[in-house]
Sequence to fold (798 residues):
Amino acid sequence: MVKSMLSANHAMAGLEGRPRNLFPVWLSLILIVLWRITVDLDIDFSTLAYGVSDMGEYFSRYRTPDFSRISTYLELILQTLATAFWGTVFALIVSVVLAPLAARNLSPHPLIYRLSREMLNFMRAMPDLLLALLFVAAIGLGPLAGIIALSIHTAGFLGKFFAESLERVDGGVYEALEAVGAGFLQTVMFAGWPSINREFVGYTLYIMDRNVRAASVLGLVGAGGIGLELNEALALFRYDRASAIMILIITVIIVIDHLSSYLRKKLN
Amino acid sequence: MASIKINSLAKTYDNGFQALQCLSLDIDPGSFTVILGPSGAGKSTLLRTINGLETATSGTVCVSNLQVNKQNLKSIREHVAMVFQQFNLVSRLSVMTNVLTGRLAKRHSLLSLLYLFPKEDYAIALKALERVGLEEKVWHRADKLSGGQQQRVGIARALAQEPLAIIADEPVASLDPRSSKEVLTLLRDICREMNITVVASLHQVDFAREYADRIIGMNAGRIVFDGPPSAFTSSQEISLYQHETMEVKEDAKMALAYA
Amino acid sequence: MQKWHWPTPNGLPPFHISIVVICSILLLALSASMVEISYNRIVNGWRPMVDFLGHLLVTPDWSYLGQLGAKMLETVEMTVLATAIATIVSVPVGILAAENASPHPFVYRIMREVLSFARALPELVWALVFVSAVGLGPLPGVMALAFVTVGFMAKFIAESIEVVGKGAVEGIQSTGGGRLQTIMFAIMPQALPDFAGTLLYILDHNLRAAAILGLVGAGGIGYDMVISMRMFEYDRIIMIAISIYLIVTLLDRLSDKLRKRIIHGKVNVIR
Fold:
């Protein structure tokens, strides 16, 4: 019975030449879902179109940046950079400890592997601002809460990246170290990290870059840096100040971006 | 210098493949033994069991009267060095650092994790590199060397362990004929001069005849020949590798039957 | 002291590594006061942390479950909508920003600058700006997400178009195809599998970003988070945190699986 059905199917496929193209079905399904979402979110695109002229007017308010409070801004930008740096260093320390345990071919025990993988996943899943909100409540306002939030979130990222790189290393190298009687830590230090040194630096620079971006908004929840100043400027409708702050943030981020991509290029 | 005693060793992998079937073997201290056999005969499994990289399903392996098991693993590995087909060097570290890893089993302190080694280790590593003729490449990166040179670094790493035995798993399978000869000559000379027991698996029968003190032919997890090279005649060679062709034919038949 | 040394020709640690380590330590030491890290703070900082964790050990407020579900749905919807809009915008923008597909080098340069501008600031800053432009609600959130996503996605599309070899382009051009046809038939099919992988990464990132946009009133679960935090409603906070973790992890696993299948060619993105 089944066999005859199968062969019938085969015959059909032969007649049609190729399987039916489902692309139009998928496309219309996606469009229906998107339309439902706009209804659900109460987003009306006609008002958006209507508001385009208003938008022009709105953004013109940013045209005259006011740099009168520049020394405060620069100080806060430095604090932002310091927060990002401290966060990255802590994240690096945590991930260097966890990654070898979370690499399938290095981990001393499957249970430790699963546990550390889950731990990294958990740290990564929590958005950094949400963590910052929690830590501000726990230890009070200030950049320290931001540092802890950044380090937890990005340790999850770095740990996962490192663990995956460590898993890609030729297993024979780990085996050779095992065969000379080296311990777990010795294998990690001599066969693990040196084999992925380039990826190690690349990921760390990428995370540093990302943390500078993230640290610039930590101030919104009171976790230090330039973000709070921007929030206040907008709350007081001081668009000239907001504009100055945004120009400063963008400049710093672009400089860091170029610096890290320059360093990455130099590595290769 | 160590004797290796293997007593009714068997190994079955998780997928049900029987790599070794009740195999017994005594290897004299200071001898150069070559294991021959078709691929899949269990040569690699046998050699890796001696270093503890594989755990036997049943049976025992003793090196210098020390049984290979979980408790003795560290001291076994300290004294039984491995040389691999793919060299297995840490490619981004220098030749010197690679050779120094051979000292790790004797350096348990935190200092070793920071790549700090005592002076005597450098002397041992340098002597090992001189022995394999690579004293000029000490600070080169390992992956900048040719295949033959990399394998010689692998041997220097083994020497740095100051081992009683060296187990070489297909040490020349990835090398050209000239480098193969160099590496095998080196291994034989080390065996003779330093009285280190060497067990190597090879694919090339000619090399085995030239270098070995004793040839062991393996097939399907069993020993099918054991004797001096002079006793390993060409008819024996044919019967050793014959099985392989038969199996291939069977496989082809099976494949056809299922098609 | 001289007995132990490093495996380098002079016995000292490698130059560049020592420089990086020394500079980092110096920077950390110099900036410690700036980020209010002190010995005192580290020694005494544990108590409030432990106290706070104690607060979190409460039974969840089950009556909140309905609202939580609605808000999480809103977060996911914002993510999907913003990513969809960004995709639609990114394809033409990406083509304009690709060196070998752009109509004019000038257009290419301008587009690249615009895209790096869009990428420079985090979503939350744009959300702040758009909230003050169009008012509270999910709309500014979707706008902010879509804006930043275009910055990343169009750059990615542009780069993969550039990578696709000239051979394919010439093949179509030799049959007399126009510019648009060249792009549709030579470039798009080759870049698509790669693009699908990136899309999954972006969805993943946008979901996390959408979860916090509510902090500035731009819709999603973030708003509830701030309010519960201010009201010390720990029984709700713990629920929000867990649900964000669950949904992010779910998407993460899903996209990991999908990505692996796409890379192994099990899913044909286009036929």
